[in-house]
Amino acid sequence: MIFYSHPYLVTLTSSPVLVTGIKMKSDFRARNHPAYWAFLVHRASGVLLALFLPFHFWVLGQALHGEARLESFLRWSDQPLVKCAETALVLLLAAHLAGGLRLLALEFLAWRDWHKSLLAVAAGATLVAGLAFLLNIV
After folding, report:
1. Residue 39 contacts residue 89 (beta carbons within 8 Å)
2. pTM above 0.70?
3. Rounded CA gap, 117 and 128, in Å?
4. If 0-12 CB within 10 Å is exposed, 13-18 middle and 19+ buried, where does residue 79 land?
5. Tens digits of residue pLDDT in 14-33
6. 9-12 sheet: strands from edge to edge
C-alpha cells in the first residue's frame, strides 16, 4: 500500500524506498555538519527574537504612561541578570544578522570554496558583536 509517491522516492508504510527498491538510510552525519548547526542557530535566533518583540513593545508602551513608569522599569533593568539577558539578546541579533547575510551570499553569489568559511565568519562576527556590547565598546 503506497501512502506517498514521488518521482524518485516511494514511501511504503513509513519506510523510504527508492524506486529501484534500495532502502534509504537515515544519515545522522548530515546533522553534525556545520551548515546544519548554522541553520539551527539562525532558526532559533529568529524564533527567540520574535518572542522578544511583545516584551519590547510593552517596554516602549511604558513611556506612553509617563516618565515615572518608564524610569522604574529602567531602574529594574540595571540588575546584573537583566544585563546578561541584554547581552544574550545582542548575541541573538548578531547571530541572526550574520546567518542571514551568509544565506544571502549563498543565494546570490556564485559557488566558491570560500562559502564554507562563511560559517566561521558569521560565528566570529556574532561573538565580536556580543563582546563589544558586553565591554560597552558600541
Report:
1. no
2. no
3. 16
4. exposed
5. 555 555 556 656 666 667 77
6. 2-5, 9-12, 15-18
